[in-house]
Amino acid sequence: MASRPAFVRRKSRWLIALALLPLWLLLAAAVAAYAYGLRARGLGWQDGPVLTQWRWLQDDGCVQAQGESLRITRWRPLTVDAPSMTLFACKPVAAVPTAPPWTPPFDLSIGALSAPGLPPMAVAIRQREQRWQARARHQRSEAVAVYDRMSGRWSAQGRIQAGDIAPGFVGALTFTGKGSWRGNRLDGAFRAQGRQLGHGKLARRTGATFEAGVAAGRWRLLATLDAPLALGDGWSLEASQALHASGDPGGVTALSLDLRAAGPQGSVRLSLDTEGTGVARGQGMLTLAGPGLAGTVPLRWNRQALDLLPATLTLPEGLSLSWPRPLALPLAPSGESSISAELRHGELRLKSVDSLLSWQQARWHWQGRLELTGRTAGHALSGAWQGRIDAAGPAGEPARLTVSGTDLLLSLHLPVAGLRAPHWPVHARFSGRYRGAPLSGTLSARHERGRWEGVVEGSVRSPLHSRGGTVSVSARWHGRETQWFLASGSRATVAEGLIGDVLLKPVVVSAVTPLRLTPTGASGTLRLDTDGAVAARWGLPAVTGQVAIAGRQGRARLRVPAWQTELALTATRVGSGRKTGAEGTLEIATPLSAAMSRGLGVTLQQGRLEGQGRWQWRDELRLQGDVSVSGLALDWGSIRASGGKGRVHIERRDDGLSLSSNGPVTLAELQVGTLLRDVRMTVQSDLSTWHFTDVQAGVLGGRLEAAALQWPSLRYQPVTISRIDLAEVAALQNDPEPTVRLAGRVGGVLPLRLTKDSLALQGGRLSHEGPLLLKVRPSAGVGAIKDSHHTAGLALNALSELAIHDLQARLDMSPDGWLDAAVTIKGQNPQQGSLPVILNYTHRENVLELLRSLRIGDEISRRIMERKPVDGSR
Q1: Residues whose CB falls within 8 Å of the CB of residue 96, separated by 6 or more in sequence, listed in order
Q2: Entry's InterPro entries (predicted)?
Q3: Using omega within 30 degrees of 0 as the cis cutoff, is the peptide bond preceding 291 cis?
Q4: SS3 655
Q5: Pairing with 218, which of 366, 485, 652, 755 sits 20 to 30 Å away (CA)?
């Protein structure tokens, strides 16, 4: 094949070069952008090239700007969209930025531009024929700036709504400006006029004027306030003269102002002036005065900074601020100052350590360490934080705080990375021990609607419990200054656990109303719900009710629905520290029922109990009060009592519980096998020993009396019986046709020894009280005795009818119930010609078995008589 002509080969090379030209241009642009500090990561395509992430670096490596999803939508003119862009505080290369360079026509749209000290703004920049136009918008505020690179002229105008930069305020600030900008030289004049400025909740409005200019590197500022400016919360700001300031890139050269802010806590006045013409320094004074403010701070200023000489200021809420060395505040475009200050509140002290304030024009930051020490509410506090604070918020290591007291050791861990205006969200963790029990939880806080609010959650094992009993708290809270509340619905739950040998079932305490927290305690209404308690010999069913608290005082109304019990309590906290205790009153009203009898040793059948008294808790519970019982009926094994009534005084002290009756305690009936009626006595006891005095009862048609009895006791104590009806004694046989009939009355003295588990009788004596009559009726049993035993038959014939004029009996009974009786009877048989009869008789029988059989027989009879027939039965 013949070779191509030379001109064809040259034409092909030019065509290839032209085809690759866009690629070479794009590569050159990328190299140039990289040289200027652009760094990109992630290149994609979405209707044009997209830089997923990008950063613009300064020569020293500081990130000046960064963003995401930067997209080129057109190439001519170059059109770039950036949904967001963030500018950072880097050290400026020059005091005045260089004017924009030559660029090809372009359009740049930024959805949200964030810069230190400014709110996010939507920005659009357009350049045609080297004429630049920038437009910025934030909410209702807007500004437009124009720069002509060919002529070097610039102009700006806009309108800023006060509420957009200071929520709560109204009014608007309109501004205009113009001048020239060539290279690094910027000249021009600026004027702003504020109208109808003030706080939205107040009717008072005012105007303000600002004039500024820069020429040949020197600047000047004039500001006036037409009338006092309402700031809200009762505060206002006024200027007795216009603010004058001037300077150069090196700092301030002249300064004059006199401002005064006044409010409910007092007033703050700031005055500054220049020492003389051409002297770049001056003096002034900061004065605080009023109910909550006090102090004077001498001031000195120079080109670089405003110095606050050592002083101590009194601030609201008991705060005081002091600094031992001059504090320097920036007046120059850049610089730094050491900060050493201390804030006090009561015994608490917060001070700065190794702290430094640095600034570069409008950008500033503080870095150093804060230390907290002191005591509050009886607890010692210590804490520290080291980090950095700038316009964006704090950054650094988590803040740590330790709270310690007699029973409490608590450590708080507070990350600061998320602390940002305007809500300043806080999420802290705490852990420690309370009375030796582990304690842990979390605390969140957020500033909303002019107050702090958040949630606290934690758990701790109750110090009263030997096992279980974990207390869990979940509460929403809010407040400001001295007004702090736990929201309704906040609750504390005590899990099931053991206190001694008592199993306390779950307890829930919840806030019915918001609880106000004060230094003396809380105020509000709580609801109490508990599932009750169980012990080896007794049980308490569920308890519900409401508790109202007010600082150191509280009152509660509780119910035990299963028992229909009503309980009212009042309480007052007394003392402090280890001597903290409580005291108050209590009232109880309840019907008595078998359900309440567990562990009492008796079975309550019916009745009503009412009581009132006072209580005190300081290391131990003390109690004193009066309890009245009416309509009491109870069973004690086979012993039954009914119609009980009485009033008893109860006291519980360090040595235990004691009770004593106020007046007589009475029982309508007491069934012990033999029925006692109208029982009366006074009672005194420590629950281990019982003393009964003035004991009286009706028994077997007669009376039983004792001046004093003690149970248990090893002594024999006399009991007097009188007018005992022998007919009722004979009726104990429960025989409708008894063989032996008795009539008449007897009496005597029975010395009894009442031990814990037994009853004994020694030397008891009975005798007749008037004539007695004994009849032995003929019966099969009597006939059998007569037929089988001649002597016994003669005796029975003599006793067939006996008029007794003398009866003497001696009685002894051992603790096991065996009674030994020796009886002498003297009388006459009228059926046998008044035959005189003397009968010496001994008898032995187990009385306890006899009474038991009598009680059993009586119980069976009672149940048969009380049985109700089923409907329809016959």
Answers
A1: 184, 185, 186, 217, 249
A2: YdbH
A3: no
A4: coil
A5: 366
> Could you tell me whether strands 533-534 and 502-504 are parallel, antiparallel, or unpaired per DSSP bridges?
antiparallel
The rounded distance, in Å, linking the Cα atoms of 111 and 464 is 61
Q: What angle do CA 855, 860, 866 make, to 5 degrees?
A: 120
pLDDT one-digit tens code per residue, 789-823: 656 666 667 777 889 999 999 999 999 989 999 99
**DSSP calls for 535-566:** -SS-EE--EEEEEEEEETEEEEEEEETTTTEE
Residue pair 253/226 in contact (Cβ under 8 Å)? The answer is no
Beta bridge partners of 506: none
If one compares 524 and 33, the residue with the highest pLDDT of the two is 524
Distance CA 353, CA 332 (A): 24
75 close to 47: Cβ distance less than 8 angstroms = no
Phi-psi region of 150 (alpha: psi -120 to 50; beta: other; left: phi over 0): alpha
> Residue 15, SS3?
helix
- How far is the C-alpha of 712 from the C-alpha of 715, rounded, in Å? 9
User: In this predicted model, what pLDDT tens digit does every residue of 113-131 receive, in sequence order?
Assistant: 888 767 889 999 999 999 9
Burial per residue of 406-426, b for 16 or more beta-carbon CB atoms within 10 angstroms, e otherwise: eebbbbbebebeebeeeeeeb
Q: What is the DSSP string of 100-118?
A: P-----EEEEEEEEE-TTS
Distance CA 518, CA 553 (A): 13
260 neighbors 267 (Cβ within 8 angstroms): yes
Q: Compute the distance between CA of residue 687 and CA of residue 693 in angstroms, rounded to an integer.
A: 16
Q: Which two tokens stand for residue 598?
A: 């567990």
pLDDT (tens digit, 9 = 90+) per residue, 475-496?
999 987 668 899 999 999 999 9
- What is the separation of C-alpha 63 from the centre of its chain, rounded to a whole number of angstroms? 47
Phi, psi (5° rounding) for residue 149?
A: -70, -30
